[in-house]
Design a protein that fits this description.
The chain is 30% helix and 31% strand. The chain is α/β, with parallel strands linked by helices.
């Protein structure tokens, strides 16, 4: 059985996928990072995956527009969960300065007020996934003067320097995730 998820390894969607697999009692699951909701839907339609996991709504940033736009009439929601979301700010090294901050649009929206206090008015760079932003900084695809917002496990995995934990504007920050499948014909 294959579950494709919006996001990369170490993303909130990956965690949600693992929770769904346990909740639904799925066995022998292969988890496939598909980065975007559009890719999840495409892989459902082409039957490359059995189920897809996508974020649908956040209590701070609202509807996940990417998912809303990707859903087609032949895709159905079969289960949903709410997941506590905590964001961290990382930079390349302890000596790096942060002149730009990169992350998924949802993470940028969920941390806007807290970042103003930490970083002032540093320009935002949108990335298709929080953990992908961490990977890009670690692999030199972003300059050293970038900061990234991601889950703590992603930043630590990529050996980035932790600047601040729990920078979401609301400490009770949650996102709803859906488990989707292709409608049976």
């Amino acid at each position: 059985m294959k579950i494709g998820f919006q996001g990369d390894l170490f993303s909130n969607s990956e965690e949600a996928s693992q929770i769904f697999a346990k909740k639904m009692h799925f066995e022998n699951v292969e988890f496939i990072p598909l980065i975007s909701s559009k890719n999840v839907v495409k892989n459902l339609i082409t039957k490359n995956i059995d189920f897809g996991v996508m974020a649908t709504k956040n209590i701070i940033a609202g509807d996940v527009i990417e998912t809303k736009e990707a859903i087609t009439p032949n895709i159905e929601l079969i289960s949903s969960i709410d997941l506590a979301i905590h964001h961290c700010l990382f930079k390349k090294t302890a000596n790096s300065s942060i002149l730009y901050v990169a992350s998924h649009i949802q993470a940028l929206q969920q941390t806007k007020e807290t970042r103003k206090k930490i970083l002032k008015d540093v320009p935002e760079i949108e990335c298709s996934d929080t953990s992908l932003a961490a990977k890009m900084l670690a692999n030199g695809k972003y300059p050293e003067n970038y900061g990234v917002i991601c889950r703590e496990n992603a930043g630590l995995f990529f050996n980035l320097f932790l600047v601040a934990k729990n920078i979401e504007d609301n400490p009770l920050n949650t996102t709803s995730f859906g488990l989707f499948q292709l409608k049976k014909s």
